[in-house]
Amino acid sequence: MRISTAQVFLSNLDNLSRTNNDLFKTQQQLSTGKQVLQPSDDPLAAAQIIKLKKEVALNDQFQGNIDVSRRRLELEGIALEQINNINIRLREISIQAGNGVLSAADRDSLATEVDEMTQQMLGLMNTKDAQGEYLFAGYQGDEPAYAYDEAQKQYLYQGDSGQRFIQIGPDNRIASTDSGQKLFEQIEGLEQAVVSNNPDGVLTGVSISDRALFEEAVGEADLPLSFAVDNTVPPETIVVTNRDGDELFNNTADPSDPTNQLEDVLGLSISLNTSTPAGSYTAEVDLRAEKTNPLNVALKLSDGLRNLDLSDPEQKKEFDSLIAGTLDTLTQAEESNIRARTSLGARINALDQQESVNTDYQLYTKQALSSFEDLDYADAISRFALQKTVLEAAYQSFSQIKDLSLFKYI
Predict the structure, then answer these.
(1) Domain end (from 324, 344, 360)
(2) Is 374 strand, coil or helix?
(3) What SUPFAM superfamilies does the annotation carry (predicted)?
(4) What is the pTM of this model?
(5) Which H or E element spans position 288?
C-alpha cells in the first residue's frame, strides 16, 4: 500500500491533536480537582453527581430551617420566661393587696406598678422574630398580636390560631411558633351566672352577688338550676331546684321580697321581667367562664386596686372576689406557661437530634459525591506525565519524518 506524503502529515496532525486534547483535559482536571468535567466524560457518574448535589443542597436547606426554628423557639422561650416572672409578681401584688391593711394610697401605688408590668407584658406578647414578624400572631405575622380596644376597654388578640411548621428533615416537620390564641387566650375567668334557657323571657338578668355563699349553697353537680316563677298574684313566688330536682329555694310560704330572699339564700341576684303577663314560667340558670388573657387580668386588677372603696361593704366584697379571681387566673396562666415552655424544650431537643441526623447524612452524601466527582491526584499526575512524554515524543518523531524526501538523494 502506498502512503502519500499528505497522508503522513494528516495522520500525524490527528495524533498530535488527540494527544494535545488528552493532555489539556488532564490539565483541566488537575486545575479544578474534578474527575468529571462534562457529562460526556462519564454519563453514569454525571447523573449520580447531579443527584447527590441535589441531596446536599436539600440537606443544607434543612439545616438552615433548623437554625431558623431554633432562633424562634429560643426567642419564644425567653419571652415566656419573662411573662411568667411578671405573672409571679402580679400574684405577689394580689396577695399583698388582699391582706386588708393597705391604705388607698398603697393600693394606688400597687396599681401603678401593675400598669407598668402590663405594658412590659404587652411588649413581650408582641415580640418580633428575626424576620420582623410578630411571633405570637399565628399566620397574621404582619399585625401586632395584641392591641388595646378603646370601645371594649380591654386587650384583644388580633392574630389567629395558626401555627407555623417548618421542614427540618425529609420526613420531619416541627412547629416553629405558637399562637397567642393557644398560649394566652385559654385562661378562664371567674364563672358568671347566665340564663341558659329562658323561653318566655321571665328572667332579664342574673349574676352572682355573693360567690362564697353561692359556692356553699350550689355545687357544680347541681347545675343548671331550674327556676319556676309564678307572678299570678304579686309578689312573685320563686322555686329553685337543682339538676336532680332537689329544692334549693322556695319563697311560697313568704312571698314578700323574693329577689332579696334569693340573694340571701343562694347568693344569686336576679331581675324579673315586670312586663311578662301573669302566669307560671320556667327558666334555667347555668355558669359560664369566659376566656381571658393575662393582660386583661392585670387590667382588672389595676382598676380594682385604684377604684374600689374598701370602706363600702359591697365594694369590699367585690374587691375580695377580684383578688380571688385574679389569683385563680394567674395560676392558670402559670400552668399554661409551664406547659408551653415544656413543649418548647421538647421541640428544641428534637431539633438537636434532627441536626445530628442531618450532619451524619450530609457527611455520607458528600463522601459518595466525592467518590464520583473528585480527582485522584496521584493517578492524574502520573497520567499527565505520561501524556506529556507521549506528546513530546510525537513532536520529535514528526519533526524527523517531515524532513524525509527523495529529492534529497537526487
Answers:
(1) 360
(2) strand
(3) Phase 1 flagellin
(4) 0.70
(5) strand 280-292
